[in-house]
Amino acid sequence: MDKWPFDLWLNFAIRRLNLTPSEFWSLSICDWMVLSAPIKSKAINQEDLQKLMQKFPDRKQDE
User: Fold this and answer.
1) Does 61 fall in a domain?
2) How many folded domains does the chain comprise?
3) Residue 42: its pLDDT value, please?
4) Rounded CA gap, 49 and 36, in Å?
5) Which residues of the chain carry a pLDDT beneath 70?
6) Which pLDDT score, from 0 to 100, does residue 40 have?
């Protein structure tokens, strides 16, 4: 097995996620893998947004 890339992970955590070094080192490997994994959901498109807005319209506070 290759070495774990802790130096790259620490760099990513500090520069991209704004974690402190102590916050990074306090994470479990499992937590880090979840935190640094790519987001798998895609953004909603305009058509689907319109459908949701029609199905769930905003209401005034007095309604």
Assistant:
1) no
2) 1
3) 79
4) 28
5) 1, 61-63
6) 80
